[in-house]
Predict the structure of Lipoprotein.
Amino acid sequence: MKRPYHCILLLAGILLLASCDPQTCGLYLIENQSTGVVVVNRGTIDPVTLAPGGREQIGPVCRLGDAALSPTSVVTSESKLMRDTVLCKKDIREERNWTTTKQGKYDYEHRFTVTDGDF
């Protein structure tokens, strides 16, 4: 009599585990394609200096869910980029300024690129 209940419980457990969301990972890159040195200030984190052609990698950052992580999830409200004393016109906190490419089924690359025209 207990056998059918065990089978039903086992099948219910398998269905529950099979429906779990997979882990999604995002790699975040900040690239300096300008001719000058750029300072990336991410709020409470120490500033990063990027030489021309340099890039800063953040992550990978992984979370549960099947959607790409927002590129702005790795920056703070105080985040900004500067070259010399000029603030970057392209706001790193706005998702529209990032380029996202799908690298794998659950892997994404988010890229924020600055050029001379952004200052």
Summary: The helical segments are 2-18. The longest strand covers residues 23-32. The chain has one domain: 21-118. The two ends are 76 Å apart (CA to CA).
